[in-house]
Amino acid sequence: MKASDRHRAILELVRARDTNVEQLSAALGVSEATVRRDLTMLAKQRHLVRTHGGATALVGVHEPEASLEERKASQRDQKEAIARAAAAHVQDGDTVLLDGGTTCAALAVHLYSRQNIHVVTNNLLAVMTLANAPGVQLTLIGGDLRGSSMSTLGPLAELSLSRLSVDKAFLGADGVVADFGLCEASAQQAYLKECIIKRAAQVIVLADSQKLGRARQQHWTPIEREWLLITSAADEAELAAFRAVKDVTVQVVECAASE
User: Fold this and answer.
1) What is the band of 236 on the pLDDT scale with cuts at 50, 70, 90?
2) 14-34 as b/e, with b when 16 or more CB fall inside 10 Å?
3) pLDDT (tens digit, 9 = 90+) per residue, 102-129?
4) Which CATH topology does 3-57 take?
5) CB-CB neighbours of 129 under 10 Å
6) What pLDDT, on a 0 to 100 scale, did the predictor assign at position 259?
7) Domain formed by 68-253, architecture
8) CA–CA separation, 62 vs 58, rounded Å?
9) Hey, which of 21, 32, 123, 251 has its CA 20 to 30 A from 67?
10) CA 90 to chain centre
11) Are 150 and 159 in contact (CB under 8 A)?
């Protein structure tokens, strides 16, 4: 089989479902080493995303976005552990930005009792938590309301961000893929995160283990600078792709299992 035909067959199989090297090798009748080389080439060409032991589709992939209530209930213990670890990075006098999403909303809880910090956010869940915090100066980024995440975005939010800067930006995402960045359900979400990244001295991404390597939406925010990933305990193989990127520092937190 010619390499071009093999690549086309691989993409058809990967787009049908996530698959691994062994399955692709058996389906195509070639060695696993050949499949690995093909996957590496296709990933460099941004036709797919390499995962531990296999690949997942990048182009044309879409799945229904979870509701706000579903996201609140999902991975609650992991999000709490990540939020607690993230709060340790906030120092007195910092100006920090909290992105939309339930993990950043959980971080807001841990900032309530802080003194002399300035929180900038488009996250209405975080605003409700911090509205009466005595030591927190709170700035809400205006814009169009996105009810499914209770956050603001759009041109007004982008304009607001162009007029400020922050010490640390805490970002959530639907998915986080090494070498690609953050995966989002809408172009506006992805672009707003890009605006945030440009205005932050330090970028910190908060992502539970289910979001690592997840590429199930069609819009992307590249992170072409140094950044910190705070994530919950995952299989070391899932973290290997991030550890291999020179600009990424990985902090793994442990969380207690729900009873």
Assistant:
1) confident
2) bbeebbebeebbeebebeeeb
3) 999 999 999 999 999 999 999 999 999 9
4) Arc Repressor Mutant, subunit A (1.10.10)
5) 23
6) 43
7) 3-Layer(aba) Sandwich (3.40)
8) 9
9) 251
10) 20
11) no
